[in-house]
Amino acid sequence: MPQPSSPPPSQKKSPHPLLPHTPPTSSSSPLPKNWPPSLTYLSALSYTRTLPLDRLTSPRASLSPTDVILSPASPALVAPSPRVRILPIASAVHPAHGQYGLFAAQQLPPDSLIVLYLGVAHWDSESDPGSNYDLSLDRGDEEGGGVSVDASVAGNEARFVNDYRGVRSEGPNAEFRDVWVEVGKGAVGKRIAVFVLGPGKGGKRARGIGKGEEIVVSYGKGFWRERREEVREIGTK
Question: 125 near 145, Cβ under 8 Å?
Fold first, then answer.
């Protein structure tokens, strides 16, 4: 999972220690404003050498009518995304004070796709235990292992999404959901994206996310349990 804030360039982690990275290619598009120069900006998912390119691919006909499928021309695939901005956190009471967050650059309706979560796709067995940007993409089955996406050294705007705790008392206003991208010849590739939460019961979230608001998700209790354990371990050394 992404951490509550992104580290400044001086604190950037070294490349994934366990993965034979295929050097990701930075987008030919201009970089988003405030993008750390020490990180690689991606406009498409990158893969490690050990992960077959077709591991996340399925026939389009195998999907259900409710699955979200994006064509190559979809506005959601434009990079940099016009829907979001990476901004420094100025509030002294924000958990990520002095670092960065992801903010809406326009009104975002309920249930709308905000931005894909891009990084380096890899087998779960190769995960870097020290990464705070590793997000599960496909759990796998008896025929194959799970796959995750690590945005610690290469990614896009979505890596700056913060957890809602200590930021928004009403709870998260966005969440991660699976999506599919057309890759040609009747096939689609599995991806994960940040979506605005639905309107909720009684339409309490009917306005979506307003322009200028920070986009926040729930990292889950497991994420914070692991981080507390890390702090305890450091304190005992």
Answer: yes
Q: What share of the chain is helix, strand, coil (3-state, %, to 5)?
A: 15, 30, 55
Residues in the chain: 237
| CB burial of residue 210 (10 Å; 0-12, 13-18, 19+) | exposed
Q: What is the CATH number of domain 9-236?
A: 2.170.270.10
Largest interatomic CA distance in the chain: 56
Query: What is residue 183's three-state secondary structure?
Result: strand
Cα distance between residue 18 and residue 21, in whole Å? 9
What pLDDT is recorded for position 209? 98
Three-class secondary structure of residue 228 per DSSP? helix
CA distance 28 to 131: 27
Domains of the chain, residue spans: 9-236
Spatial distance between the Cα atoms of 45 and 170, rounded to a whole number of angstroms? 32
Alpha helices in the chain (DSSP H): 221-236
Taking only the tens place, the pLDDT of each residue in 137-152 is 998 875 668 999 999 9
